[in-house]
Amino acid sequence: METINPVKQKTRRDSGIELLKIVGILLIILSHVIQTLQMKSGDVPYSDYVIDTSVATQSVRVLILHFLSFSGQFGNWLFFLCSAWFLTDSKYSKKNKITFLIINVWLVSFIILFVATILRPEIIGIKIIIQCLFPTIWSNNWYLTAYILIYAAHPFLNIIINKLPQHSLFALSATMITIYTGINFLKDSFFSSKIIVWIAVYFAVAYVKRYMPGFSDNLKANIVLFTVALFCHIALIMATNFVGLRVSAFSNQMNHWLNISNPMLITMAAALFNIMRNIHFTSRAINYTSGLSLLIYIIHENILVRTYFRPFLWHFIYNHYGYNHLFALTFAYTAGIFAVSAVLAAVYSLTIEKAVIKISDSLTALISKIYHKIEAAVMKIH
């Protein structure tokens, strides 16, 4: 999820891409809301609200809920592609941006821990304190930890891209895509990880941007591509459910395709990104809301919020309203989480984040100074 220093960023992107990022964060929140509904939490004493979508079902409602649970992976790919498209042209990473990201993640985590300690001290143990105080190391928000690593590494990836001729870049991209979003999608193998899958797609994005501009700018082609990928995704889930209802060994495999390597979701995200990239308009409200996406993400997906608050809210909804209007409740829940997180993000951005920018600049300068001294000392060793 790309974040932009709100003070130092002077240029604005088209609002088509910024709108896509807002859609992405809404899809991610929707997915997290549904994940809470799907799985029992071992940290709360109740599970009456849970609806298991991991097994084959004849319930249309449960099947639709399962389809919606893919929205998070789709939203994550939208954010990654928005970042990768621009990073492939970058020659260096801004060290103060990395520090800025890490401090923001830590500070939001600490603030929520502090508030929770006052309001609900009984849920605060040693483990949760350590996780909250070291959120990046513990990957409490996996996307941000992964993004920081990719952002730091992207100049070196770009060196590889720039030095490879077209046929070699195609071979590299095609091989990695085949292995890590093809074979690995069917069976987890070849020592895959989120970072490796991202790098595979990063190389593919670089190839398409450099050598396939006609296709990436073709609205009709990308609409067709999105439609075909969506149809294939729906067909795969329906087929899995159909087989699961008839073969007991496959009855609990509905979540098998819910992974980062899903080529249909990647293709859909790429096609939608190309579509929105070619829709040009400007909206200050959209650009501003999009600029809060990092904070909205780390607030709503904070480890304390997802572990205790979201299950409690579903438990409350189930016991007071029931599930007769489940989808309306799910979308209202999502909208509410988004609205509250956006307000808190705006307040944080207008107040605390200004100090974070200054701190990150100073800390980055200090770290760079120490690093260069170490580098100079090591270089003298023969």
Short description:
This protein has 382 residues and is mainly α. It is built from 16 helices and no strands.
Percent of residues in beta strands? under 5%
Distance between the termini: 42 Å
Helix-strand sequence: HHHHHHHHHHHHHHHH
Count, helices: 16
Rg of Cα set: 22 Å
Shape: globular
| Helix-strand makeup class | mainly alpha
Number of strands: 0
Mean of residue pLDDT values: 93
Tally of distinct domains: 1
Helix content: over 70%
List the uncertain runs: 1-11
- Largest sheet data: none
Explain what the structure shows.
- The protein is an all-alpha fold.
- The chain has one domain.
- The protein has 16 helices and no strands.
Write the layout of secondary structure elements.
Elements: H1 15-38, H2 60-68, H3 71-87, H4 95-119, H5 126-133, H6 142-163, H7 166-186, H8 194-211, H9 213-216, H10 219-246, H11 263-277, H12 284-291, H13 293-300, H14 303-321, H15 326-350, H16 352-379
List its salient traits.
73% helix, 382 residues, single chain, globular, 0% strand, mainly alpha, 16 helices
